[in-house]
Amino acid sequence: MLLDKQYCHTSDSDFATIIELLPYSPEKLILNELDLKKLINLTLFFYGEMNCMIKIVLDEEFHKLDAQVGENLCQVRAVNLLFILKHTKELSIDKETLMLNFEKISTLINQLKQVTQSSISVKNNLRTKAGDFLDKEGLLIELPKIYILLFKMHILHKYCVLDTNNIPITINTQKISETAGIVNSAAKRLIHNFQKSIAKHSTEFTIDCFSFSSQLKNDALRLKKLCRYADEKRWVFPCFIGAKALMSYLAKFNFPICVVIKHLIKESIFESKILFEVDANKTYQITHSPETHLDSSAMIIEGISSNLSNPENTKKIIIQKGIEEILYLNMAAHPQYTGKVLKNFSINPYMDIEDSDDLHDELSEYQYRANILGCSLENPSLFFIKHIFVSKLDKIFKEASKLGFSDIALKNNYHVYSS
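Above: the chain sequence. Below: its structure as tokens.
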């Protein structure tokens, strides 16, 4: 199945309701008034956050859909989001449809608020299934299924917790618990389900990207064996070979890539940017006219360089090597899988794959060169990638601060899903 034909039609399966978001089965029975109030409050939370997601897309603040998923890698989510944005009409996220659904949800939110103030007979709803109650009260509306995915991405960004270096470490489930009116264990289950869902979707997307690379397409049967369960039973795919598939997709559809370099010079940080665009040969070359791309969405690759002597020379080497090579070097130096379950496969993901010497030799060569050239954690002298996300280029060239995550770090009530 080619990616660009995946959403060329509309069927019943392309729509969903918030039932898919519940942290428990829709078959769960309402046993008392408290159960009923919690269900209504949770429904209000879902629709309120759904409209927040719609506003993010309307305002083109795509960096706010940068989900924290744990083992699932940021470059996969970034390219997946660019794919979604390329198909706004087919996926019903064009501005006109977004506005219609925003208004529909706003009307429903007002209806829900009236429900909370009315005296719905608890007696008449005792032992009613949660899903049946929402349906009976007209509190379920069909939305394009992609809204459910974008909703999960929004939640996993908004409630993300950062460490002192602005690196995402966990999700604040206590805050979700308080806002949604559910117990903390249900909030943890909610986030766990969201992360599993996005990890699965992103891994399948990476495999679909094989179709845009003749090398990977011909080797698809062998490479699909690399898809594994990691911690919390989240699907993952090794980052080096996955990056090759993703770059094939980006080049095919001419998505720009912006490299943001934070040069660590003594006690200060000097920031520079390089914008790459796809040429006629489907390879990335530097563009000297970023102003012509400011209205475009792009993959943003943000990292550091510890070369203290000459920032301009750092940029020249990155341009000379090419963004594809710089990305592959970083992805080779990165653990191919993270977490406890796949720890033994973190350096060599091909250990149990028959006739994989060619794959291992290529990865080993890149791992060696990454340390020599300065694209690794041990040696970040050239460029070590810290994060990859999606943003409109006008925001990147107008704002100096990092857009990948907002400043929402809280210092307690964590539930850690990533290792």
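The CA atoms of residues 53 and 64 lie 9 Å apart.
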